[in-house]
Amino acid sequence: MKNKNISQIVLERIKGEKIKPISRRIFYIKKVLFWTVVTLSLIIGSFIFSLILSGLFNNDWDLYDRFGFNFIMKTLPYFWLGSFLIFTILGEYYYRKTLLGHRLRYVIVIGFYMISTIIFGSIFYFVGIGDVLEKSFIDISPVYRNIILNRINFWSQPEEGLLSGIVTKIGNEEIEVKDSNGLIWSVNINGASNRNQVNLFVDEKIKITGDIIDDSLFVADEFRSW
Questions:
Q1: Which member of 34, 36, 51, 223 has the lowest number of beta carbons within 10 Å of its beta carbon?
Q2: What is the spatial distance between Cα 55 and Cα 127, in angstroms, rounded to a whole number?
């Protein structure tokens, strides 16, 4: 009797709210769509993690002693860390909409997603994908260069002894460097240490530490590859 009452209640609600059953085709499309979003979020999250590793491993941690905690605040890849968090939440949200979504606890799903993206992202980084992606973003996107990639901003402080740019001319004791703002600098490299054993050539992007002499002259203590 109780079951009959429940059935009657359900039928009355269906009739009252004019609920229509979802067709098998739509149900299948939604199922495929949810799993597609979950898979894409996992793949994109892995690429993002490879970019995070690229930002961390290519950071100039030796300068921490000089700038302290401010160095970390200015050079961490905040954009990619935020993006990684967003895609983690997105992946978990759409996994909940799949038929298997109710079987695992929230913490387990998030943990599995993060472990998977860390593993695949690490593989992507160590085969060079992270560096390739970052270089591509730098080359094609001014927004990425000037806002998202904090390292460029950090290395654009000649008054603090930090200069970066593209080599435009090479002399015996002096080179010319075009910085991210388009300014041309004459850089004296006589006696400067070559940290990464950089083979200087035109169009190469480098980072330089030293002292600013005037608006267009810089004396280098050290130069290193970008």
A1: 36
A2: 15
State how beta strands 217-225 and 184-188 pair: parallel
Long-range contacts of 17-22 (CB under 8 A, 24+ apart): none
Write the pLDDT tens digit of every residue in 8-53: 666 666 666 666 666 677 767 777 787 888 888 899 999 999 988 9
Tell me the two tokens of residue 53: 């590793």
Over residues 83-112, the pLDDT tens digits come to 888 888 888 787 777 766 667 677 787 888
- Spatial CA neighbour of 88 closest among 104, 103, 110: 110
Tokens of 70: 């401010």
**pLDDT for the residue numbered 154:** 84
Residue 130, burial from CB neighbour count under 10 angstroms (0-12, 13-18, 19+): buried
Whole-prediction pTM? 0.66
Domain boundaries, the chain: 21-147, 162-225
Residues 6+ apart with CB under 8 A from 66: none
d(C-alpha 7, C-alpha 203), whole Å? 76
- The CATH number that domain 162-225 falls under is 2.40.50.140
Amino acid present at 220:
A
